[in-house]
Amino acid sequence: EAITVANLAKQMGVKATEIIKKLLLLGLPANINQAIDFDAAALVASEFGYEVEKAGFEEEDILQATEDKPEDLQPRPPVVTVMGHVDHGKTSLLDAIRHTNVIDGEAGGITQHIGAYFVEMDGGRITFLDTPGHEAFTAMRARGAKVTDLVILVVAADDGVMQQTIEAINHSKAAQVPIMVAINKIDKPNANVDRVKRELAEHGLIPEEWGGDTTMVEISAKKRMGIEELMEMVLLQAELLELKANPNKPARGRVIEAKLDKGRGPVATVLVQEGTLREGDVYVCGTYFGRVRSLFDDKGRRISEAGPSVPVEVLGLSGVPNAGDDFIVLADEKQAKQVAEHRQMKHREKELSRSTKVTLERLYEQIQEGQIKEVNVILKSDVQGSLEAIRDSIQKLSTQEVKVSLIHAGTGAISEGDVMLASASNAIIIGFNVRADAKAQELAEQEQVDIRYYDVIYQIISDIKEAMVGLLEPDY
Ligand code: GDP
């Protein structure tokens, strides 16, 4: 909550000019009628021997979801993300699915790109997120959004497992989302399905026919071969996951994408995760609140309501939210406003003081406080050889109290994707003879991700060891 300088002065019984002076010294010039935020107020107040207390507002009190009774839960369609190396056919597969499963009568309808789409088949319904790749997936996760139930990993049969294939596997694993494989481009003369399976097996995805538990389907997205079978497998997997939600309550979901539309104002695609969203509903979305004016489905048709796993375009937002933001329907407009305003305030506060992410220096402290029991590490190195050596040594570091997990390792510069994964998984990034590219560096600062650079393997191991027992000196 913000407080004006005048009000703060009155409450502490000091002159406003004294406060303005202090603020100036802190590099926060303000005038008497200006509202300053909680941190600034707390800082100034402490100079005068006062402590500032926050007005007790817990958004959980308002947003707390009611527990569903088992009998209220109904099966819901799976939500699927397609991942894979560039040019292996993610977009082609999404297109093929969209067109293979057009139900008669709908065929004339123009499909809109709203960030997700819905297909209906004899065997059931499936929702596909339309932004393929692990970057978008992990960016959502970094915002606390878990929307994907199942990943389809596309691997081109003529190219095999590549860098981004491995990244996709590790990002999915870090999120604990099951993976199914679509071996694509089997129409190509140089397709080698067996090689792909062998390479996947090396990364822990063992095909079912070899006694493993990863479903692999051979397809050609271009020739539209194997698509139906792939869909059947998705539905089979989904059945095993027993996905359920209660449709009979106010909706909750996540923003898949959002934009400012010239004619229609702010528009967001929301994936409903539980409950049913209706026209006229009052909502909180990220730092915004308002009332749903109208809803459109992925075929551009106006609809009056959308249930669990259904992606829907929402009009009538008071601003453009971020992908991954939550979307929660409330009964009371006043409460929605209160939550949104509280969030805006907290957002500003966070801008000022940030540092909840794990860093090597704070590791020991966080272990002691019981905040973490597992240290996640992402390792990038210049050559494969050193990767293996470091991987082995890191894996030996786990103790009874603290588990050290290498969640991703690869060669090449530290990328934005690495930073996103670190942010989403609260991991530390280690660069061995490689640096972060400019964009990754910028993102790391923004996301508060700790990146460490080394050129001696021994030093990596000794730093992590020291950090685990609280002996590491800051690295400047
Ligand atoms: P993405 O980068 O993973 O989204 O890959 P795209 O879907 O854009 O496909 C990359 C290229 O591979 C395009 O030229 C496609 O036409 C081609 N392609 C995709 N699927 C197949 C396939 O099943 N067979 C063949 N021969 N080419 C394919």
Description:
By secondary structure, this protein is α/β, with parallel strands linked by helices. The chain has helices spanning 5-12, 16-25, 38-47, 59-63, 90-100, 134-142, 163-174, 193-202, 227-241, 333-352, 363-368, 384-395, 416-425, 438-447, 457-469, and strands at 3-4, 35-36, 74-75, 79-84, 116-121, 124-129, 150-156, 179-184, 216-218, 244-245, 252-261, 265-274, 277-278, 282-285, 288-291, 294-296, 302-303, 305-306, 311-315, 326-330, 374-381, 403-411, 427-432, 451-454. The strands form 6 sheets. An 8-stranded antiparallel sheet has the order 15-14-20-11-12-19-16-17, covered by helices on one side. The longest helix has 20 residues, at 333-352. It starts with a strand and ends in a 7-residue tail after the last helix. The model has no long low-confidence stretch (mean pLDDT 87). It binds guanosine-5'-diphosphate. This is Translation initiation factor IF-2. GO terms for molecular function: GTP binding; GTPase activity; translation initiation factor activity. It is found in: Cytoplasm. GTP binds at residues 84-91, 130-134, 184-187. It comes from Desulfacinum hydrothermale DSM 13146.
